[in-house]
Amino acid sequence: MRISYWLQKLGIAIFSSLPLFLLYVLADFLFLLNYYLVGYRKAVVRENLKKAFPARSASERLQIEKDFYRYLSDQLVETFKTFQMSENDVLKRVEVLNPEVMNDLAAKGQHVVHLLGHHANWEWYAKALALKTKHWLFFVYKPLNNKGFDALMKQMRERFGVRAVPMKSVFSTIESNLDKVHASFFGGDQSPMAHNRFIWTPFMHQPTAVYLGAEDIAKKYNAAVVFGKMRRVKRGYYTIELKLITDTPNETAFGDITRAHTRLLEELLEEQPQYWLWSHKRWKLQPDKHPSNATA
Q: Which of 116, 124, 225, 270 could make an SS bond with 245 (beta carbons 3.0 to 4.6 A apart)?
């Protein structure tokens, strides 16, 4: 692992030192290669778009598909650029429209469960929030199989004060940091396994299994729940709009928090569908075969 780690680190250092305009030239080439020759998960993307947008024409869905693959290449080079971006670079390219939503909660000493989707550049998202808000930030992630590259990604994710936390360590990390006013970032659009706690709710015209983990954590620790809408303004520039779902989680009915953040993500996908991770197999579980095992 040591040799591969240092080779990967050297490659990333060289790659991330290039200016973004050159990286976008590479992204254009990668799009052509991927879309017209490789076709990475193209069948999955097309099936997902057909399910999610049944009322849109075939030509409209094809345009979303092409725009998605273009953005997938942009996101790849932007992620690698993150290794050498400065604080000013991040703040120039990602505008947090209403950081007071988080900062008001921090001033009250309230922890936050922060939900977002795999929409637009979620790596830049965490960096911008770290620079503009006052919580102690935990970025929850699934470790990669390649240990060397996973270590490098962890280093990148922990820039500007973010703490990268593997999914299996979420509860222990929260428990050991209750003395700090913290916010835990979760991807609210992950597809659960059949043995996980989840509920069924409509999402993009499909019955969809959604994790209850974020709601469970919010209620256990009386944490406010905030959803983040990241929109792409133009190439390399984004805005983040924060939506407070609740600051009294234990006063909400079972499943309400989970359904609320799912609706907010759905609204964002209707508005900017091309920037979601359509290559993700989101609807692996089916309600007739996988009944929910969750209770209040």
A: 225
Cα distances (angstroms) measured from residue 197 to each of 104, 256, 293: 31, 15, 6
Q: Which pLDDT belongs to residue 145?
A: 80
How far apart are the C-alpha atoms of 160 and 82, rounded to whole Å? 11
Q: Name the residue range of residue 192's domain.
A: 88-275
If you write DSSP's letter for every residue of 131-167 in order, what string do you get? Answer: HH--SEEEEEEPPPSSHHHHHHHHHHHTGGG-EEEEG
Q: Is residue 9 part of a domain?
A: no
Per-residue model confidence as pLDDT tens digits over 112-140: 999 999 999 999 999 999 999 999 999 98
Identity at 14, one-letter amino acid code: I
**The token pair that represents 6 in the structure block:** 């240092």
DSSP secondary structure letters along the chain: -HHHHHHHHHHHHHHHTS-HHHHHHHHHHHHHHIIIII-TTHHHHHHHHHHH-TTS-HHHHHHHHHHHHHHHHHHHHHHHHGGG--HHHHHHHEEES-THHHHHHHHTT--EEEEE-SBS-HHHHHHHHHHH--SEEEEEEPPPSSHHHHHHHHHHHTGGG-EEEEGGGHHHHHHTTTTS-EEEEEETTPPPPTTS-EEEEEETTEEEEEE-HHHHHHHHHT-EEEEEEEEEEETTEEEEEEEEEES-GGGSPTTHHHHHHHHHHHHHHHHSGGGB-TTS-TT---TTTS------
The chain-wide mean pLDDT, for the chain, equals: 94
Residue 132, in any domain of the structure: yes
Closest CA to 271 of 231, 226, 228, 227: 231
pTM: 0.93
In a domain, 127, yes or no: yes
295 lies in some domain? no
